[in-house]
């Protein structure tokens, strides 16, 4: 079983569309994250949830809206997609904030 | 502001040689450091970590060294193998309720056969 699974793995969409990326972890972790990796491989945190509550929001445009229906799931919805949103998005989880991260395999989003 | 950086963008080594990947950090309040390996098409994978009360930690073929005086972190890989080819990231974290990992820019390790 995959510990942190993201779907879809690839997403190609047109500018202006709305899309969602889903993430699930079966590790029993309390904390989940979304990271964005740009074309230069730089990883930057976007959001963090602890037990379904938002605890970190790193000045991400409000077109991005995370949702955590339970502590095993953290989904990312993006409205009005822009070319600059093209990147690889990684979900991660940890047993507590800041330690023991396990990453998913990423979702490559391409906006055309 | 806090930042974590790597000195070189790429490193090429001969198979069987030892590799050393260096990282500098600027936040003196950081108390936990981690090295990650990212292979093509995959997410970052934990390699080894070290807390600020230590200066060295060894794993299987890997050693992490921490020099808090100069805010420097290094990853040593012994007998580098082709499977070690990947992008390596150092990351730092500061304890707290809303702590998070801050990643460096990544360095590509290329192993020559």
Q: Would you give an account of this structure?
A:
The complex is a heterodimer of chains A (112) and B (113). Chain A is mostly beta strands and 112 residues long. Chain A has a single domain, classed as Immunoglobulins (Immunoglobulin-like), CATH 2.60.40.10. Chain A has no helices and eleven strands. In chain A, the strands form two sheets. In chain A, strands 2, 4, 5, 6, 9, 10 and 11 form a seven-stranded mixed β-sheet that branches. With 113 residues, chain B is an all-beta fold. Chain B has a single domain, classed as Immunoglobulin-like (Sandwich), CATH 2.60.40.10. In chain B, the strands form two sheets. In chain B, strands 2, 4, 5, 9, 10 and 11 form a six-stranded mixed β-sheet that branches. The chains are: A mainly beta (112), B mainly beta (113). The interface between A and B is medium-sized, with 23 and 24 residues.
Uncertain segments of chain A of ≥5 residues (pLDDT<50)? none
Estimate percent helicity of chain B.
Answer: under 10%
Distance between the termini of chain B: 41 Å
Overall tally of structural domains of chain B: 1
Strand content of chain A: over 45%
Q: Using DSSP, what is the number of strands of chain B? A: 11
CATH class of chain A: Mainly Beta
Overall 3D form of chain A:
globular
Element-level helix/strand string of chain B: EEEEEEEEEEE
Q: Note poorly predicted spans of chain B.
A: none
Average pLDDT value of chain B? 89
Separation, N- and C-terminal Cα atoms of chain A? 33 Å
| Number of separate helices of chain A | 0
Largest interface: A-B, 23 and 24 residues
**Topology of chain A as a string of helices (H) and strands (E):** EEEEEEEEEEE
What's the quaternary structure here? heterodimer
Query: Structural class of the helix and strand makeup of chain A?
Result: mainly beta
The gist of it:
The complex is a heterodimer of chains A (112) and B (113). By secondary structure, chain A is mostly beta strands. Helix content of chain A is 0%, strand content 56%.
